[in-house]
Write a structure and sequence with these properties.
The chain is of the alpha/beta class and about 230 residues long. It is built from eight helices and five strands, in the order βαβααβααβααβα. Strands 2-3-1-4-5 form a five-stranded parallel beta sheet, with helices on both faces. Helix 1 packs across helix 8 and helix 3 packs parallel to helix 5. The longest helix is centred in the middle third of the chain and has 25 residues.
């Protein structure tokens, strides 16, 4: 049975890919590699990020990551994330998908389940309510989860210099976030590609590109089997 990358997309040819992972998982590096691969395949993507991606989103990102705002309530953090996401969807993601473009985002709603739901202990139910409200039936076609041990990830992150507000959390916060990411991937393996991020950047790149190529081939085969 083939695995269809675009099983949930209501936007025709446009595809929505997301890179997820805790701090130090190498998302920024792999985003560049993925852009190069998709461009070579004839699908130059719109690259974006969360929180951010729009003028409003970038302002909210500054607040959310500001280390001088350590006392932010978990509910306020979650709602700011979804406020940025609502603008992101309206201004960038939906228009690109409706135009048949591919979108690749550095994080999306899985991060809210991992960081606010598990890390902050808010639980998954209220995040699900916000997800349905803000996104309706839109979900990523493929989530690439860069999985890494939290201690190793934080050690990498520390090499970047001054830590932001999220990076200053304790190790068990990131352990809970990682567990939530893995649980979501295990619950929906057709929509997640889990890659061991402890490998070299080149090794991670090859695993991601092989996985994306395989799923694109399977999706094309699935369309051919359907006679379309």
């Amino acid at each position: 049975m083939s695995v269809e990358v675009a099983s949930a997309s209501p936007f025709g040819l446009g595809k929505f890919l997301v890179l997820e992972g805790i701090e130090g998982s190498g998302k920024t590096t792999q985003l560049t590699y993925l852009e190069q691969e998709l461009t070579a395949l004839g699908h130059p993507p719109v690259l974006t990020r969360e929180p951010g991606g729009t003028a409003l989103g970038e302002r909210l990102r500054g607040l959310l990551l500001d280390p001088d705002l350590p006392g932010m309530h978990a509910d306020a953090e979650l709602l700011l994330m979804f406020a940025a996401r609502a603008q992101h969807l309206a201004e960038v993601i939906r228009p690109a998908l409706e135009a048949g473009r591919w979108v690749v985002s550095d994080r999306f709603t899985d991060a809210s389940y991992a960081y606010q739901g598990a890390g902050r202990g808010l639980g998954m139910q209220r995040i699900g309510v916000l997800e349905d409200w803000v996104q309706a039936d839109l979900r990523p076609d493929l989530v690439i989860l860069l999985d890494i041990d939290p201690a190793a990830g934080l050690e990498r992150a520390l090499q970047r210099g001054r830590r932001d507000r999220i990076e200053r959390e304790a190790l068990d916060f990131f352990a809970r976030a990682r567990d939530a990411y893995r649980a979501r991937a295990e619950a929906d393996p057709a929509r997640y590609l889990v890659v061991d991020a402890a490998d070299t950047p080149e090794g991670v790149r090859e695993r991601i590109l092989a996985g994306v190529r395989a799923r694109l081939a399977n999706a094309a085969q699935g369309r051919g089997d359907g006679g379309g």
